[in-house]
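Co-fold these.
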Amino acid sequence: MKGIVFTEFLEMVEAKYGYASVDRIIQRSNVPNDGAYTAIGTYSSHEMHQLLQSLCAEKNSTADEVLTEFGKHLFRVFLKNYPQLITASENSFHLLESVEGNIHVDVLKLYPDAELPRFHTTRIDETTLEMIYESDRRMSRLALGLILATAEHFQEQIRVETELLEPTGKSVRFLIRK
Amino acid sequence: MSITEEVELLRRRIEREINARKQAEKLLEVKSLELYRTNEELKHLNASLESSIRERTDSLLLSEMQYRSLIQNLHSGVLLENEHRKIVLTNQIFCDLFKIPVSPELLIGADCSQSAEQSKNEFAEPEAFVRRVSTLLDDKKLCIGEELKMADGRILERDYIPIMAGERYLGHLWRYEDITEQRKVQDIIRYSEEKYRGIIENMELGLIEVDNNDIIQKVYPRFSKLVGYTPEELVGKKAKDVLLPDESFRRIVEEQNRHRLSGEPGVYEVPLRRKDGQIIWVIISGAPIIEPSGKVTGSIGIHLDISDRKRTQEALEEARRIAEEARKAEKRFLANMSHEIRTPINGIIGMTHLLYDTELTGLQREYLDAVSHSADLLLALVSDVLDISKIEAGEMQLTERPFNLPDLLNELTKTFRLRLRDKPIRLESFVDTRIQRTVMGDPTMLRQILMNLIGNAAKFTEKGLIRVQVTLLDQLGDFLMTEVSVSDTGIGIAPQHLETIFESFKQADRDVKDKYGGTGLGLAIVKQLVNLHGGEIAVESTLNEGATFTFTLPLKIAADDDISIVDEHGKIDSACLESKKILIVEDNPLNKKYVEGLLRKWKAEYDVADNGLEAIRLVEQHTYDLVLMDLMMPVMNGFETTVRLRSMKANPNAAIPVIALTATAFAKEQSEAIASGMNDCLSKPFTPDQLLQLLQRYLPAQEASLSQTEAMPETPEVVPEPAEPYTYSSELDVAQLEQFYGHDYAYAHMMFSLFMETTFPEVEKLGEVIAAQDWKQLAALSHQFRPSLVMVGLTEVANAGKQFELLLKASPEAAELPELAAALGRVITIKLPLIKEEFTRLGKAVESV
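Predicted complex below.
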């Protein structure tokens, strides 16, 4: 898992709860290297799960809520760091449809070893987009956060229906309606 | 949170930041290295890309140069235009063809859109040219080999080649070639073809062309006339099916056709069936039709009608056959007659000798001499005629085998020295020392030639020298060219007779015939025999000084394998005797053993009877091919036995040949023998060859027995040679002994042993008979012993006995009788012990093997 996920996760925690929380979570998680992460590094996804669980325990919230929140945070980071990825699209469907074909392609140019989730989009009709998430990381909630942040960015009202296509969450179907 | 705690938190934060930075730095280092490597790789790739581009460019340049040079050096004028009709490339020949006074390089880039119009007057038909060019350019279709007549009489060939890259048109290429000369040559060829076709059509030769499957492709009018079919009736049909009358000729033609396929011509004669059914004969000269590539595409058959010639030829052939048959019949008649005449002449000669034994007046004796002389001459004549007719009928054939030339000459000169005893003549023989080895040739024929020539020399020479000389003229590998000359100091031959001397019945002149007798066939036979042996004979002579006959004789050096089979007894082929059964009727043990030894050697089967009665018993039980019959035997003599045998009508042996073994030649015994029904006589002692010749005459070789010989490989009886060559004592008749036994010393030893056992004690006792002056008994005994004495080389004793015998017969009261008897006794005393010594020596020689 790319280091940016860790640094931004900890950024989010620090922004929301202060560095003392970050420090606690790190210590609690007992991750190697004492939680020193660099955005360009690559770390085990297991460490991410440990950090996530520590945060949930600390703040008494669910992993789904944290991940959705993290997704929204990441969207802001992307918008700030790589605005051209987002501003190239006119609306949310447009952007979501370009994730697999354009954005992920650009990501792989910078981080060739990045293990990205796969998205398959189908425009059901003018106002409905089906987006199927597939990843062994089972972090569809992160994707949901990003979808919601996207709609927010384009100032669109959407409803998202989530359906597990596979019980452990490796494959999830989002039905997005405007 | 206390200060300390806050400081601690900050410290941990900073530590994490530092740690993260270091991780980032490390990663950057790694990435930087990777970047460097990738850069290097890129640089390298770039360099190789540049070099490969350079190579590609070079090769393009080269190929362009090659094409350019190719086009410039083509024997055709070439003009390459691009799609805008601008000149890309042209060559000097193009400029020359159209008389363009600038160099081809200068034309590059020039516009061609008006060129047809500008150059049209160069062409014989300007407007047509312009139209055609315009059509070609519009169609953009390949067009090859168009011919254009020029205003100045030249003929150009033009190709238009559009250049397309897929569907895209990139321009076109014009190729012009001056084919004026080519056309001229073609015209000459066409004219020449027409000329020859005209000649062929007007000749008496019928031509057809067929393909490789014998299918007729083209029929020329003359052939059509020859066979009576129209060309349309023949083309497309199989020639041999339509034209050949039967299967056997189809095979000939098929074989010829196969030869034709391999490109070989051939000439053969066949009959053809015309459409009207008439058969004509033609000579066909077949030649393959060969394409320039070397492939045979068919053949052309030239037919010459030879029907008339064929008819004449057949008539001639028939006439020749009739003549040949007549000639053969004549030869057969001559040969038969000669043979038939011999029998009565033998009778005459025998009777003449009997007549000499009677009381005769001087006149009667004179008449009888004439009769005897004439009979002898007649017999010689008949023998010679038989020889000549055999030679002319081609029945006399050369049989080459290894023999020793010096030995043959020695043997001959010995015989003649004996004959020349009474004349003051020296007989010399010389053989070139280089021909001492065993040679291959026909010794029988050579012997006959030399017998005749030396015999002539002896006849026509009264005193002086007869010289036989063999010289080596040349040697080529194993091949020897020798020259044999026989010269004498005799009466010689007159120049006018030298030319005809070798012709039949051409003796020098009548006087010669009257004085010397002879048949006049001897030299004719000699010439024929010399020619048969591959040589030539010539004669030189000065009248009254002598004559020299010289002939060439080609011989070969015998291979080592051949030399070992040189055997005096092998001279005549004894193959005819294998599996023949012969009855020997003989009481004299010495003769019996001698004949037995020879028959065993020749692989003949035989039975032996001691007297006539025993013979009759055997004849009743077995079937024989021939009987050898002694005449004087106890119990039942040969005459009576033969009469009895001939009268046994139901017996298969009744008609078989019977050969008398007589003690005296041409005397009472012989004619009585013939009279009693015997077929021939052989006087004792005889040599193996003499017996073998007689047996061959009466026992013709059969096909069956020959094939049997082939089936069972011959295992020749090995005659062991003594380590040291054995030589008989010179006191004995060595020549005679060698003739009898050859190198078979074991055989000689056996005969000597028999002599020691049977005859020796009897001969010893002759002394007593001489002492008792019992002349009649002495004559009888010497007659009886004579053959046995000769068999052991005591010819001198035998001759002394014979002289006594003759004298006693002529005048029983002659005063010289005791003297001759004493001489006989002396010879016996001197010679007889030699036999004992010889026997012992022979024994040792045989044991040492």
